[in-house]
Records
---
Amino acid sequence: MECPSKSTRKRQIGYLLTDWFTKNRRILPWRTNPSIYNRLVSEFMLQQTQVATVIPYFNRWIGQFPSIEALAQASEEQVLKAWEGLGYYTRVKNLHRTAKEIIKKLTNPDAIEPDIYPQTPEEWKLLPGIGDYTAHALASIAQNQCVAAVDGNVIRVLCRINGIQQSFESKNQAVKYIKNIAHFYIPFGKSANYNEAIMELGALICRPKNPICDRCPIVLHCCSFQKKLNYLQIPKFQKIIYVKKTAQRIFICDGQFIILKKTNTKRLYNIFELPLIDDIDKKMFTQEIAKINRSIANERIEEIISKPKYLPKDLKILTQNYPDLIFLSIYELKNITISGPHRKWLDKQLLAYL
Ligand code: SF4
């Protein structure tokens, strides 16, 4: 079967998707109250994090910082603590800076919501942490401008319905390619619904491994389905080569006090984590207590956690020789922001060693 003619097909697909979305969309807190601020917060949280994880964080966040003004006035400690566990802390620092910049540019204090925000994707992109995708998502979904936001779901759906079988070197290359065709599908005046619809279809129906084609509203227009292409392999990406690394960490705790490290890297600035063995006297006798594997981007990291066989008499003295290390009481742990995996290790595995 040939693909339906392109001129009618794209328009039909756009309308079918928005109709389907109106009846089938998930109820999500940022959709229930779709203010631009709520969308801004949800877009930052949803970068690299799944919807189910984001929902409780989003609800707590809106309770604590209900408006862009409230967020702009909050301290860095407050926003980091509210974000703790979501990871990728650069996002929250950028969200905080973005809120401050929007409020700083506000010349009329009585301006109502839409007027205080950037009005085009190009203007959104001038704010911290807002890249091409987020700028287009905010302009289309929050402001109904006729632009297309292209994420992994959109790439997959548009590649499949168009039967695009070429291999892409990276997601960025695929985004550039798909962007050229994505906006032709937007039905007149329905940009917000259309952009959410195609992402929702990718999340619920046209899934990476198990697409549910018999429930797909555009099955009759899908080249991959109609031509029986192997759509599980569409889009094709060249294989990522993972780099293997090992990190040796040390868990120094005497039951009442613990030693952590306040990181100064750009990504984790002012966040606490378990020190690396290199941060302390390497002559200290240690015993391995846990091995944890995790992935960050294209790195597979084996984290080996050890504890000292013999503790120094006074932990505080130990930190005096190592300025990067911080001496904390166990009770202070709940008030500081610890990087996501380290908080999980402490709460789930290392508590037994306190
Ligand atoms: S028919 Fe199947 S492969 Fe095609 S867009 Fe729908 S779910 Fe995806």
---
Amino acid sequence: MLKNVSLTLRTETAKVDILKNINFQIATGETVGIVGPSGSGKTSLLMVLAGLEPVSKGHITVEEITLDRLKEDERSLFRRDHIGFVFQDFHLIPTMTAIENVAVPLEIASQDSPFSKAELALKAANMGHRTNHYPGELSGGEQQRVALARAIALKPKILLADEPTGNLDAKTGSQIMDIVFDLNKKYGTTIVLVTHDNQLAIRCRRQILLQDGQIKRNKVNAVIHP
Ligand SMILES: Nc1ncnc2c1ncn2[C@@H]1O[C@H](COP(=O)(O)OP(=O)(O)O)[C@@H](O)[C@H]1O
Ligand SMILES: [Mg+2]
């Protein structure tokens, strides 16, 4: 839940109001598409939801945890325990193979058998055949699937994805989104995704339209296209 959330960042020359008095609630197990023009604050909103960026004003409560009161190390624990994040540009570690990229967060979270869990996650993302490849040896779609495997390996309650199909052709993009929507169906994972793809937005239960850092529309889709 976001209550009167604002985000103001300082650049060298000015203060920029990026999110302005944002209010909304997302139910557990919901799928939400965030749409809006470039520069409207979509990425910033995801960062705030993930606890990657502290808010300037207002309150954010996720799974009964009030994020705006947490210190940075507490926010990072919150992320580890609750959030899977898929970045628009993957953020894979280039010197690690696919399976190492997926296993490392599991190791950090002190999970048993991180490598077998990583392998299962890669298989779930249709990447079981490329576990020992480095990111540089993979296509954009394959890297995106590794990034997705990494995000889902910890079985997060909430999956946040920033334009997860932005760099992919339509077919690969839709395969990746099938995996994401399956997670929602199988495990009730809450999904929040930023997209400029209308086909994708109408697969979500609800759409939030951001414009100039403000919510312009927040409505349940009349028809959901699975
Ligand atoms: N670190 C930053 N410092 C200052 N301004 C920023 C920073 N990050 C993003 N912005 C500005 O915030 C606005 C929203 O950016 P962003 O959330 O990336 O939008 P979107 O993802 O919708 O394209 C843009 O005007 C962008 O230039
Ligand atoms: Mg963005």
